[in-house]
Amino acid sequence: MPVHYDDKFARFTLETANTCYVMQILFDKYPVHLYYGKKDCHGGISYQNPYKSFSPYFDEHGLSYSPDIGMAEYSYFGSGDFRITPLRIKNKNGDSVTHFTYDGYRIFDGRMNLPRLPYSEADSDTQTLELSLLDSVSGCSLKLFYTVFPNEDVISRYALVENESGAPVTVEKIMSLMLDLPTSDFDMISLYGAHNAERSFQRVPLFHGVQSVMSRRGASSHQYNPFTALCAKNATERDGDVYGFNFVYSGNFLSETEVDQTGFTRVSLGLGSENFNWLLEDGDSFITPEAVMTYSKNGLGGMSRNFHRFVRAHILPPEPFEKRPVVLNTWEACYFDIDEKEMLRFAKSAADTGIDMLVMDDGWFGARNNDKAGLGDWYVNKNKFRDGLKSFVDRVKAYGIKFGIWIEPEMVNPDSDLYRAHPEWCIRCTDRNSTLSRNQLVLDMSNRDVVEYLKKSFSDSFDGISIDYFKWDMNRHMSEVGSPALPPERQGETAYRYMLGVYDLYRWFTKHFPGAMIENCSGGGGRYDLGMMKYSTQIWTSDNTWPKKRMKIQYSSTLAYPTCTMSCHVSNPKNICKNPDELKYRWHVALNGPLGYEMHLPNADDLIKATVKAQVEAYRSYEHLILRGDFYRIFSPFDSNYYAYYFTDAQHTEFLLSFEQSYGESAARVYLKIPEADENARYFDTVSGDIFDGRTLVNGIEVKTRETDPYSVMWHFVKTK
Predict the structure, then answer these.
(1) Is residue 356 over pLDDT 80?
(2) Residue 506: alpha-carbon gap to chain centroid
(3) Hey, how many other C-beta atoms are within 10 angstroms of the C-beta on 557?
(4) Cis bond before residue 317 (omega within 30° of 0)
(5) How high is the pLDDT of residue 707?
(6) Is residue 177 within 8 Å of residue 270, measured between CB atoms?
(7) By CB neighbour count within 10 A (0-12 exposed, 13-18 middle, 19+ buried), where does 642 fall?
(8) What is the predicted pLDDT for the residue at 721?
(9) Among 43, 36, 6, 4, residue whose Cα is nearest residue 22
C-alpha cells in the first residue's frame, strides 16, 4: 500500500512507483520531515537538528529540538520558527501566535473531497494519510492530508482547520503545502509573463532569503503561473533531480521558497495572506485548495510527464465527444462584426474543409457592437439574429457540424441593462471609486444572488438549443476588492468566496449542459491552471497566435500541463497568408496541442481551403499522440532559434517528431534524437513515405537550419514488422 506507519520509530512512509516520502513524529508531538526523493534511498536517515545560537527551543527537549532548525512537515507563525510559515491564526486572545502538536493519524483509501473546490479524483490505488494536530491555546484543530497517487508519482497536500474554541478566530494565512529539503543546491524554475506573452521560462539559482511567485489579481494570471520547480543545477531534460509543485486553484496564490541559515530549503504553496483572511466562527472549519508535488530523477522531462499523466488521469473532465473537435473560431476574422448571414458562411466553409465546429465569438448578445456595452445581458441581439439563437443554431447544424459560443459570465459593462438594474452586484469597496479595465467591472461572484442570476440568464438563453461548446472568457483582474454582500469583518474573504462562486457556476454548466465542452479563456492564458482544468477540457493558450511567439508560450506550458489542454490555432485572420508553405508552418506550430483555426475561411481562395482540408485530415492521424501520448522536449526555443519535440505512445511504436525554426540563422546541422526508438526496428514515415532504421532515430535525424525563416518539418514514424 502507498502509506505505511512504523510504530517502533513513529515514522510514516509514502511510496509511489518511483518515489518515497518519509516523516517522523518527534517526542510524540512534532511531525518532522526526513526525506523526499528516489525510492529506496532513505535507509538510515534520521532527524537532524543542527542547533544555531539565537534559535528558540523548548526547555523540556533542550537543544535537541528547535522549531527554527531542521526540517518540519508544517510550521506555525510566532512559535519559534523564523522561516516562512504556512499557518497564522489570530486567536481569541488577540495575538497571532500559532502552535499545533500531534494528536494522531488515520490512513484511508481514496481521499478527502473538498467541498465547492476542484480537486484531483482518486482511483483504486489512491490512499491518504491524515495527521491530526491541536493548538490548546487557540482551541483549533488542524488536519494535514497527504493523498498519494502512486502510478503518477504525485502526492497532493491540503489542510483543514476547525475552530473549537467557543469564540471566533481569524485565519490570517494558510498554505496547502510545505516541504523542507536538506540542501539549497537548486535552480528555481517559474513561469512569468503578461497578456500575449504568458508563461515565459525562467530558471535562476536559489539564494539565501525568500524567492516568491504570487498573484494578487484575483486570478492565477498571465503574469505568474502557480507552477514552480526546483531542479539540481546540472539537471537537463533527461537527467537530474527535479521537484515540481502546482496548485489546484484559479485565484490569488503564493508560492514561497526560502534558503535558511543552515542551507536548507523550504517551499510553501497556497492562498497566502494578501487579499485573504477568513473569520472562523466557533464550530466552523476551513479547508484549503489542493496543492500537488512530484519528484523525478529523470530531469525536467520526467517531472513534466509525471504531471501530464496525473492531470489527464485525475484532473481533466471526461472527453465530451468521441474525438476532440477541430474548431473554426470567428474572433480574429470578424471581431464584433457578426450576424446570422455571415456566420452561416463560416459554417458552410467549415463543413466544406472538414472542420468539426463553428465557434461564434463575442458580439452575438445584448448591445454588443464593441467592447463598451452589453456584458451581463445574455440574450441574443435580434438585429443580428432576427429569428433568434435556436433558429440560427439549427441552420448551422444542418451543415453537419457542431456549434460553440463565447460567453464571459463574470464581467459586466457599466453600459448594460444588468449594471443599471444592479450596480451593487459588482466587486467594489464602500466609498471608493472603482477602476475600469477593458471597459469592464467584475461581478461579485461571492454573492449568491449574482450566481443564481447568471444561472437563470444562461438557462433562459440556451435551454433547448443544441450548443456543443462554451468558450468561457474572463477579461480583467480584480481591483478595489470588496463585496457589498459581506459584512466588514468578512471583506478579506471576498476574493476567495469569488472563486467559490465561479466554481459553483462551472459545476452548474457541466450539469445543466452535460453534453457540452468548456474551453476556458482569460484574455488567452490568464487562468491557465489546474483549477480551471477540472472543468475545462482545454484552455485557450494565449491571445497571441503569432507562431514565433507561440513556440515559447507552448514550450513553457508543457513543463507543467499536458498538451491536450493547450488549445492551439492556425492563425490567418484576414487571409494575409496565401502561401500554403507558410500555412503549413503555422499548422506545424499548432500541432503542439488540440487543433483549431482563426481565419476568414469563407473569403479564402480555393488553394488555402484545400490546404486547410488536408491539414485537418492529417491531424486526425496524429491526434491520439497529441492528446494522450508521452511528450519529450528536445530543443528549447528559449535557448535557440528553434523548438523541437516529439510525442510517442506507451509502447513506442509511433513517434510524431516536430522541428520549428522561429528565426533564420546561418546554416547549421542539428540532430533530433529519439532514444526510445528500437535500434533493431524499421520505421515508416507517413509524411514523406520514407523508411528509417531505428538506429538513425536513436542517433538523431539530421536537420539543417535555414538562413531565412520560417521553416518547419515534421515526421510521423510508425514501427513496421
Answers:
(1) yes
(2) 16
(3) 27
(4) no
(5) 87
(6) yes
(7) buried
(8) 72
(9) 36
- Given a contact cutoff of 8 angstroms between Cβ atoms, the answer to whether 326 and 356 are in contact is yes
Q: Can you tell me the mean pLDDT for 360-381?
A: 98
Is the four-CA dihedral 176, 483, 506, 162 of positive or negative sign? positive
pLDDT > 80? residue 43: no
Residues designated catalytic: 473, 543
3-state secondary structure (DSSP) of residue 393: helix
The answer on pLDDT for 576 being more than 90 is no
Q: Tell me the residue type at 639.
A: D
Mean pLDDT value across residues 437-464: 98
Query: Cα–Cα distance between 19 and 695 in angstroms, integer?
Result: 32
DSSP-based helix, strand, coil % in the chain, nearest 5: 20, 35, 45
First to last CA, the chain: 40
CA distance 444 to 490: 14
Query: Which DSSP letter does residue 415 get?
Result: B
The single residue listed with the C-alpha cell 542551507 is 263
Handedness of CA 380, 382, 388, 394 (dihedral sign): negative
Cα four-point dihedral sign 502, 507, 508, 510: positive
Q: Which residues contact 553 (CB under 8 A, 6 or more apart)?
A: 193, 197, 198, 199, 200, 525, 541, 542, 544
* Positive/negative CA dihedral, 474, 476, 482, 483: negative
- Cβ-contact 195, 521 below 8 angstroms: no
pLDDT for the residue 368: 97
Residue 333 to residue 336: CA distance in whole angstroms: 10
CA distance readout (Å), 253 to 146, 244, 534: 20, 16, 17
Tell me: the pLDDT tens digits for 656-665? 999 999 888 7
Q: What is the arithmetic mean of pLDDT over 46-71?
A: 91
Alpha helices in 219-339 (DSSP H): 299-310, 331-334
Say what the pLDDT of residue 664 is: 80
Distances (CA, A) of 186 to 32, 183, 235, 520: 22, 8, 9, 34
The span from the CA of 64 to the CA of 53, in Å, is 13
- Within 13 A of 555's CA, how many CA atoms are on the CB side? 30
Three-class SS state of 414:
coil
3-state secondary structure of 168: coil
pTM: 0.98
Contact call for residues 544 and 590 (beta carbons, < 8 A): no
Paired with 163 in beta bridges are 140
Helix (H) or strand (E) holding 56: none
Q: 41 versus 504: which is more confidently predicted?
A: 504
Give the DSSP H/E element, type plus range, for residue 679. Answer: none
d(CA 178, CA 257) in angstroms, rounded, equals 10
| DSSP E strands, 490-608 | 517-520, 538-540, 566-572, 595-599
Q: What is the pLDDT of residue 577?
A: 87
CA-based nearest residue to 565, from 603, 527, 597: 527
Phi, psi (rounded to 5 degrees) for 581:
-65, -40
Task: Supply φ then ψ for residue 366, to 5 degrees.
Answer: 45, -140
249-261 pLDDT, tens per residue?
999 999 999 999 9
- Packed helices 606-628 and 580-590: angle between N→C axes, nearest 10 degrees: 20
Q: Phi, psi at residue 389, to the nearest 5°?
A: -70, -40
